């Protein structure tokens, strides 16, 4: 995992109390994990927009909105005997994208390499 942001950077960008009742260190760890899961290039120096994105995601993590639990499994089940009918409804496990995550993705957009092919000359 790459360390894109630090607690002191988030403190500077978002001000005191950004973590609410959450744990700053854990929130920044989660934000760095979230950023590391994105197809970002390697940076010599992390751009300000990426640091800002990390800060936004750290705020969401501190509020318990990042990596929230999702429910999966059978929600309802129906059975009919003589008409031979069976029905199941599954919980999709979907989770809404938070405002902070959406903003972070917009900040990261210029750096993301989705669908791009990198050519390397030998």
Describe the main β-sheet briefly.
Answer: 2 strands, antiparallel
Strand content: 5-15%
Order of helices and strands: HHHEEH
- Bin the helical content: 25-40%
Helix run count = 4
The general outline is: elongated
Radius of gyration: 20 Å
Low-confidence stretches: none
- Count every beta strand, where a strand is a DSSP E run of 2 or more residues: 2
Protein name: Protein singed
Features of the shown structure:
single chain, alpha+beta, Protein singed
Account of the protein in words:
This is Protein singed. It comes from Azotobacter chroococcum. The chain is of the alpha+beta class. The chain has a domain at 7-68 and 97-111. The protein is built from 4 helices and 2 strands; from the N terminus they run αααββα. It has a two-stranded antiparallel sheet. The relative contact order is 0.18. The model has no long low-confidence stretch (mean pLDDT 85).
Secondary structure topology:
Layout: H1 7-14, H2 24-36, H3 48-62, E1 73-80, E2 85-91, H4 99-108
Antiparallel strand pairs: 1-2
Helix pairs in contact: 1-3, 2-3, 3-4
Protein name: Protein singed
Organism: Azotobacter chroococcum
Précis, in short:
This is Protein singed. With 122 residues, the chain is of the alpha+beta class.
